[in-house]
Amino acid sequence: MNTQQRQQAWWLYGGLMLIFVALLWWVAATDGAMSGSSESLVTAPVATATESWGEASEGAVVALDLTTPSSAMEATPWQSFVGSVRAHAASDIGMLLIQLVVILLVVRVVGWLFARLHQPTVIGEILAGILLGPSLLGAVWPEAMETLFPVHSLGNLELLSQFGLILFMFTIGMELRMKDLKGQAQQAFVISQSGIIFPFILGILLTYGLYSRPELLSEGSSFLSLALFVGISLSITAFPVLARIIQERSLSHSHLGRLALSTAAMGDIVAWLMLAAIMAVSQGGSFTSALYNMLFLALYLAVIFGILRPLFGLLGRRVRHREVLSKSLMGLIFILLMASAYFTEIMSMHALFGAFMLGLVMPENLDFRVIVKEKVEDLALLLLLPLFFVSSGLRTELGLVNTPELWALFGIFTLVAVVGKMGGTYLAARSCGIQRRESLYLGAYMNTRGLMELVVLRIGLDLGVLSTVLFTILVMMTLVTTIMTAPTLQLIDWLLKKKKTPQSLEHATGQVLISFGRAETGVTLLEFFHRLCGGTAPQVACTLMHVTTDTDISTIDAEHYYASSFAAPMEMAKQLDLSVQRKYEIAESVPEAVLSHANHIQSNLLLLGASVNLSQDKKDRDLVAYSNKLTRRWGLLTGRRRKAKKEQSSHSFEELIATFAQEAPCSVGIYVDNGQTPIAHPLVLMQRPEDQKLLLVAEQVTQSADSPITLMPLSLHLAKPTAELSARVSWSGETFAEQVDLSAYDFAFIAYDAWAALTPAQQELLEQLPSYLILDIDEATIELPTIHRPTTEAVSYLGKAS
Q1: What superkingdom heads the lineage (predicted)?
Q2: Torsion angle of alpha carbons 84, 87, 88, 91, nearest 10°?
Q3: DSSP strand E in 449-590: where?
Q4: Confidence at 49, pLDDT banded by 50, 70, 90
Q5: 521 lies in some domain
Q6: For residue 416, what pLDDT is reported?
Q7: Residues 678, 667 share a domain
């Protein structure tokens, strides 16, 4: 569009706006005139009839006054505006929206605080719901609670929360894959059932003692229903919370971690089957009616496992290689989900059971489950599930536990829950031949309850089996037993201290840790490591490490990330005939996790890949530049300045490199990949005479012994080395500056100190380099030229004779 066309477009736009404004003025003026003339039509009898609508006799014709009352007509525009705002705020949709804003804000903040305390976020979310209820907000500021949660609005919250629970239980079912239970099925079955039976029996005995106290019972609750619900509530294990704890302890792929997950998964399946049967019995009304419910439960399970599961298996194989499921298929899944939930609801087994079972029979294909779960999980967990926490919190009154007897009862329930769950699990694990330490760990893991327990308790409360007092006591027990999981594990660690030594690395004379983000980076780093080893690494233990920074992920997501991240690097390791270990960790800080593991394995060399900050993609660089611009702008507004030293929260590439170089217990190499893979003519950049040792690394990784290597000074003041250089090494007469042609080189080596000096002033020049290695050599961990581990025996570090 040229200048003349732009001017014509603006003139046209201006003319249309003038016409639009004139039309609005005419409508307003006409409305005022017509409203004034219609005032005479508003008669007193009509107003009286309007006001006495409820008193009109049957069959009478009543006129509705649709005109503005005189009091409103006399109101100022501001008063009219305020009245309109209040009316919309008090409407159902307005009330629901402000409730959502407050609930989501409080739940996320309290959940984040508990995560910072290294506690499961679900505990903070449950507690946030209690804080918004009568236990805190209602006690401290009752007017605010009545305004925010009026009685007439609670029905909407309850319905939405139940829908969120249906989606949540569907995702929980998808996390439990049948094939994951096969490897340790026998042990997992024995341990899980013992962990259910022991607390179940103790719960029934405890209920027998409670039943003589009517103030603790719900009106009309039978002993059978109460005993069964108390027993099953003490037997539940929260699989999602347990999986999160195991991920945080980096045990997902250990024998203990897999056994704990299998045990919890099998226990949850059996517990929910028992809960469905208990609900059928509790609501049956008679033995014959309960028998019908059980019969339909068996029929439902036969359809789910006999028909739907095989069909879903075929479907999973059909879409195995498709990246995205079609909308039609997702629509079918949602239809089946609602149908399954509806059937179990009308059969007195609760809609949540139907959602859980449909998720359980989803195709075993991991990619299929990940895609379906991603489409459902964010809506369920982030938007709808917090409503369940608050709706439960509104019915939890901690003030009801106001006597020593009730506090003693809370202590008894907590003790019975812990002893029953941990004791039953520990005894069963020991009988299966598991060592004492691992058996104690399993007991502590199975004692985790969390959200799953709260779901069961709400079902009991909604059915009228649990009284409000007993519900509150059991919610308190749930919070305590879940919070105590992490301290219990730390106590076991302290009581049974054991030196952690990776068995497969015990005989290695060197340790190399390769940390990568993208799978392609892992492949590149492995290839470079193989060259650094001279083609073989018989005495070097190599560990591949990938860190996921999203700590709020499920087991199925973690399994997907693990498989996709390590698939290509492990295939490359197989091609290169390298024996490597895999280390997958979920942590908030990548540097902290990597440095911690480097210390743990006493690494001699740490290899890392570059981040998006030095990406050759212009979109990536533009994104980083815009992010830095916002950081500078908001930093000035808040009065905060960037510190020169490293900060863990910073995503700056330079600061991350400084973190690794300054805090790593070993030598560090940062591989900046710009796409060139062969190393035929490398460039060694020198700032000081000591940087000549990089030449030895360059000679090691070049493709052939005849490949030329060029030494280039970064300063005119640096003289040519006096020592005799090999025939293939040449000294460049030019210094590293903008006018230097770098196209002849396919790789570069630079010391960390030299790179750090160039970064602020010559960032664009660094971006013109081919792929390069930033190397910070710690001679206490490796030696050059043979790059071996310094010992009195001069053992080869990277496979070369010293």
Answers
A1: Bacteria
A2: -170
A3: 510-515, 540-548, 580-586
A4: very low
A5: yes
A6: 95
A7: no
Amino acid at 150: P
Structure tokens at 132: 């918004």
Is 768:789 a contact under the CB 8 Å cutoff? Answer: no
Residue 720 lies in domain: 674-747
What is the reported pLDDT for 564?
87
* 314 and 380 fall within a common domain: yes
Q: What is the pLDDT of residue 44?
A: 45
Contact yes or no for 159/96 (Cβ under 8 A): no
Question: For residues 453 and 478, is the Cβ–Cβ distance under 8 A?
Answer: yes
Please give the Cα distance from 745 to 760 (Å, whole number): 23
Q: How many angstroms separate the CA atoms of 692 and 721, rounded? A: 8
Band of residue 123 on the pLDDT scale cut at 50, 70, 90:
confident
Q: Which of 104-108, 377-381, 633-637 has the highest mean pLDDT?
A: 104-108
**Residue 166 pLDDT:** 94
pLDDT digits (tens, 9 = 90+) for 466-488: 999 999 999 999 999 999 998 99
What DSSP string describes 161-175?
Answer: HHHHHHHHHHHHHHH
- Helix crossing, 436-446 with 485-495: angle to 10°? 170
pLDDT of 325 over the 50 cut: yes
Average pLDDT of span 62-73: 47
Angle, helices 154-175/239-248, rounded to nearest 10 degrees: 60
CB 359 within 8 A of CB 174: yes
Report pLDDT for 659.
86
- With tokens 């070369």, the residue in question is 800
Residues 341 and 449 in one domain: yes
**CATH, residue 590:** 3.40.50.620
User: Which run of H or E residues covers position 451?
Assistant: helix 450-462
Give the integer Cα–Cα distance in Å for 766 and 464: 71
How far apart, in whole angstroms, are the C-alpha atoms of residue 576 and residue 505?
19
Query: Is the sign of the CA dihedral 703, 705, 706, 708 positive or negative?
Result: positive
Model pTM?
0.70
Please state, in angstroms and rounded to a whole number, the distance separating the CA atoms of residues 237 and 255: 19
Radius of gyration of the chain (CA): 34
Query: Residue 464: which region, alpha, beta or left (left: phi > 0; alpha: psi -120 to 50)?
Result: left
Note the pLDDT tens digit of each residue in 395-443.
898 989 989 999 999 999 999 999 999 999 999 999 998 989 999 999 9
Q: pLDDT at position 636, please?
A: 43
What string of DSSP letters covers 119-182?
S-HHHHHHHHHHHTTTTTHHHH-HHHHHHHS-GGGHHHHHHHHHHHHHHHHHHHHHH--GGGGT
Choose among 160, 555, 463, 173: nearest CA to 337.
Answer: 173
Side chain identity, residue 465 = V
d(CA 445, CA 172): 18
φ/ψ of residue 27, rounded to 5: -65, -45
- In Å, what is the CA distance from 393 to each residue of 125, 243, 323, 463? 10, 25, 40, 17
**394 burial class (0-12, 13-18, 19+ CB within 10 angstroms)?**
buried
Q: How high is the pLDDT of residue 627?
A: 56
CA dihedral 568, 572, 578, 580 (to 10 degrees): -10
Rounded-to-integer distance, Cα 340 and Cα 238, Å: 23
In a domain, 456, yes or no: yes
Cα–Cα distance between 273 and 267 in angstroms, integer?
A: 10
> What pLDDT, in 10s, does the model give residues 601-656?
888 889 998 754 444 445 545 555 555 555 555 554 444 433 333 333 334 677 78
Tally of domains within the chain = 3
Higher pLDDT among residues 676 and 736, named by residue: 736
| Token representation of residue 637 | 């507004």
Same domain, residue pair 730 and 775: no
**Amino acid residing at 1:** M
Tokens of 565: 């991240």
